[in-house]
Amino acid sequence: MVLLVFILVTFIIDRCKTTVIPKDLYFPRLTTVTKTPYSSVFIFHRSSSRFPSINRVIEFTDSTGPMDIWHSLSDEELVEKAMMVPRVAEDPKKVAFMFLTRRHLPLRLFWEKFFEGHDGLFSIYLHTSPDFNYEPPNSSVFYNRRIPSKFVQWGKPTMIDAERRLLANALLDFSNQRFVLLSESCIPLFNFTTIYNYLMNANGSFLSSFDDPRKIGRGRYNKRMGPTITLKDWRKGSQWFEVNRELAHEIISDKTYYHVFQTHCLPPCYMDEHYLPTLVNKIRPDLTTNTTVTWTDWSGGGSHPMMFMKKDITKTFINEVRYGSNCTYNGVNSKICFVFARKFHPNTLDPLLKMAQKIFGFSP
Ligand SMILES: *[C@@H]1O[C@H](CO)[C@@H](O)[C@H](O)[C@H]1NC(C)=O
Ligand SMILES: *[C@@H]1O[C@H](CO)[C@@H](O)[C@H](O)[C@H]1NC(C)=O
Ligand SMILES: *[C@@H]1O[C@H](CO)[C@@H](O)[C@H](O)[C@H]1NC(C)=O
Ligand SMILES: *[C@@H]1O[C@H](CO)[C@@H](O)[C@H](O)[C@H]1NC(C)=O
Ligand SMILES: *[C@@H]1O[C@H](CO)[C@@H](O)[C@H](O)[C@H]1NC(C)=O
Can you tell me which residues the record assigns to a coiled coil (predicted)? Predict the structure, then answer.
């Protein structure tokens, strides 16, 4: 009798499996994690008793070339895997450049000049609109660097989901040590070596977080967020962060505060301006300098920063952005406070390329 039930149950499970297998076959769900002898290669695979030959292996590696970073993990599975990876990079040598874009990266050629000759010290991740499937030429560092993406609405929780997706994917590479979020209108202000050293040697993360007493700051706090989040905890900051591995890990691990924000941070509260600044203030205020390294010009007033055009791109302007500020870096006064800048119109590509040699020095 017991045997009969067992056989019946096995049969039913088998049947159920069959119904999910067509999708599984194509994109198997991934269950086990294996570490390869190469510290930065991380493999997920699944073997099925029904189809022992199915063992699709997905490698997350340090490669910036045509290595497959595509996978079929759900957001929950992805975060779960990312939470299992070491908090301390085993071979901390790379900066993860995470681009949150809608479609094309209009300044791609400028970024390519920036990355040239620095293979092995960076990795690139692109989150685009899910229906966007253009790939640049296979010689590009951006080739095959899209991660499985979902639809994003500006200022909504889906935007934070995209940021978490980028962080979780980038955490899977054990050699990523710093994680920078960039938009399609961002540019690097210095050559790779300078930016790399600036970020890798910084003792804090550059996630901006401050208390804005105005209506557009504290005014967006909702009492219903209490007692988990009080007005005293409430912070604002730029969306464009740079975090170290430890803070990246903390961010993707949060469920509590995310949930409160998702429920109560509704317009005119924008999650991308308040969630991370408040979260970091609550859980690890010791890990950030509370400032961003991405320069933005808000001097025009209004809710959108200045957009720079072709005619604005001059040596004087770039140098002003590079050296026109005062801050402290690792506790010492510094003129270099920003290493990235936005917002640059696609028509700035030509003048930027012409100035690339001046901006980046004589790269090898
Ligand atoms: C890259 O693309 C070119 C032209 O489309 C093709 O000939 C070449 O085989 C590709 N190389 C690789 C490594 O895929
Ligand atoms: C970085 O180090 C300096 C000097 O030790 C210290 O003053 C500063 O608070 C540190 N910053 C962070 C974010 O840890
Ligand atoms: C950042 O702000 C928090 C409070 O919001 C504070 O505890 C922390 O010391 C600040 N960090 C630095 C480096 O100033
Ligand atoms: C930065 O500091 C220098 C010297 O301490 C000062 O002359 C300059 O005006 C300051 N710049 C800004 C933007 O505060
Ligand atoms: C990068 O820029 C720095 C100045 O920021 C310069 O000293 C260095 O020579 C440049 N490196 C290369 C490889 O051009």
Answer: none
The DSSP line for 293-313 is SEE---TT-SSS---B-GGG-
Dihedral sign of CA atoms 145, 276, 219, 224 in order = positive
Is 343 exposed, middle or buried, given 0-12, 13-18 or 19+ CB atoms closer than 10 A?
A: middle
Atom of ligand 3 nearest to the CA of 210: 5
Q: Which residues of the chain have pLDDT under 50?
A: 5, 7-66, 363-364
Distance from the CA of 288 to the center of ligand 4, in angstroms? 23
HSE-up (13 A, CA, CB side) for residue 348: 26
Query: In 3-state terms, what secondary structure has residue 166?
Result: helix
325 Cα to the center of ligand 4, angstroms: 7
Q: Which of 328, 320, 249, 244 is nearest to 288 (CA)?
A: 244
**Distance spanning both ends of the chain, measured CA to CA:** 76
Ligand nearest to the CA of 323: 4
Confirm or reject: Cβ of 331 under 6 Å from ligand 2: yes
Phi and psi angles of residue 193, each rounded to the nearest 5 degrees, phi first = -55, -45
Q: Give which of 95, 103, 104 is closest to 123, Cα–Cα.
A: 95
Which atom of ligand 2 is found nearest the CA of 205? 13
pTM over 0.85: no
Note the ligand closest to the C-alpha atom of 287. 2
Query: Is any atom of ligand 4 closer than 6 Å to the C-beta of 193?
Result: no
Task: Kindly report, residue by residue over 29-72, the tens digit of the pLDDT.
Answer: 333 333 333 333 333 333 333 333 333 334 444 433 335 678 88
